Amino acid sequence: MDAQARRAADAAIAARLEAWLSTRPAGERAALGVYWPVRGEPDLRESMAGWHRAGHAIALPRVAADSGALEFGRWTPAATMRPAAFGIALPEPFELLVPTLLIVPCVGFDLRGYRLGYGGGHYDRTLAVRALPAIGVAYDACELARFVAAGHDRPMTAIVTETRTITRQ
User: Fold this and answer.
1) Sequence spans of domains, the chain
2) What's the CA gap between 66 and 162, in Å, rounded?
3) Given strand 158-160, what is the order of strands in its sheet?
4) pLDDT per position as a tens digit, 39-74
5) What average pLDDT does range 128-150 have in this prediction?
6) Are 131 and 161 contacting, i.e. CB atoms less than 8 angstroms apart?
7) Contact status, residue 73 vs residue 94, Cβ threshold 8 Å
8) pLDDT tens-digit readout, 2-31
């Protein structure tokens, strides 16, 4: 995608995500576990700042050393960011915050709600220990007809793209 198309797609994803979030109970939206974009993932940083201004707590993930699951640290638009593993930026200092809903980037997804990430299984381990609603975020072009989900894979509550919001049946 060229830069202009990507910005338009990111804005459309953000608008669809905001519409979906507005239908959720307030407690579920209280603390949003989001992500800092890398490798061409949809960029939601402007939305994160808006959610923060609207009173939501925003948290960014890092891999917990002991379990490989994710733990989340509070982020604000004024946060100092430092580079960490995999080129992912983290807020400094890292103040632990437990999210009530996750917004998860997808390298690929299917209509059953399963997602592909970069293969580390960190989100799957996180969802295995913490039953949270999880919203996959991807571009339409990342849709796969079907792939074999492993036994540990957790389907997303919904997948949001620039043209659709796909919910599990």
Assistant:
1) 3-167
2) 36
3) 70-75, 57-63, 31-33, 101-105, 134-137, 158-160, 165-167
4) 889 999 999 999 999 999 999 999 887 777 899 999
5) 91
6) no
7) yes
8) 999 999 999 999 999 999 998 888 888 889
Domain 3-167 indexed as CATH 3.40.50.170: no
Instruction: Give me the amino acid identity at 101.
Output: L
Q: Which pLDDT belongs to residue 152?
A: 80
What are the structure tokens assigned to 46, written together? 């402007």
Q: Where are the beta strands (DSSP E) in the chain?
A: 31-33, 57-63, 70-75, 80-83, 89-92, 101-105, 108-109, 115-116, 134-137, 158-160, 165-167
Whether the Cβ atoms of residue 62 and residue 118 lie closer than 8 Å to each other? no
Distance separating alpha carbons of residues 149 and 115, to the nearest angstrom: 9
Structure tokens at 157: 């509550």
Please list, residue by residue across 117-147, b when 16 or more beta carbons sit within 10 angstroms of its beta carbon and e when fewer do.
beeebbbbbbbeeeebbbbbbbbeebbeeee
Contacts of 75 (CB under 8 A, 6+ apart): 34, 48, 52, 58, 59, 60, 91
Amino acid at 24: R
The shares of helix, strand and coil residues in the chain, as percent rounded to the nearest 5, are: 30, 25, 45
pLDDT at 169: 55
